[in-house]
Amino acid sequence: xxxxxxxxxxxxxxxxxxxxxxxxxxxxxxxxxxxxxxxxxxxxxxxxxxxxxxxxxxxxxxxxxxxxxxxxxxxxxxxxxxxxxxxxxxxxxxxxxxxxxxxxxxxxxxxxxxxxxxxxxxxxxxxxxxxxxxxxxxxxxxxxxxxxxxxxxxxxxxxxxxxxxxxxxxxxxxxxxxxxxxxxxxxxxxxxxxxxxxxxxxxxxxx
Length: 207
Known about the structure:
By secondary structure, this protein is mainly α. It has a single domain, classed as Up-down Bundle (Heme Oxygenase, Chain A). It is built from ten helices and no strands. The longest helix has 28 residues, at about 35-60.
């Protein structure tokens, strides 16, 4: 399947993300709380753009079955935003004051460009890495997370069956809409590179 091919060809970047200091410390429970706070603020900003990209891709789909799937993905993204809203309240984040990091802006601009200017298959290639990578990271961290990890809720969300099921559904739609072509491979890999940069950005303020 195309989604398997794309993942296998980018497993190097997936490994880099899993071994990233941000992700390792999250799994160990040793991540600086201020760093996690900055990450959540950026992720809330990013997810709103992710949601809009689903909507634009849906508007371009001719098959109503695919539109329905994208609508369901939007619902999932809204649920994820609700989770972030809980973090925002507990961490005292004022989203009106959040300014995207360059890495966040680059990722958001890329997603919007794909959604508006490319066919849905290429857009899904740009969006699938986020879903598959987080399911991969969540599952890996859950297997080794220490007791009373302060980030356990985050880990369990992305390791959970519900999230993994949505990631698989996104991959199924990618297979239905995309062809094995350079634009699809390029979009997938660039998105993985954006994910790696996204983990680095909240840590730069600690340097």
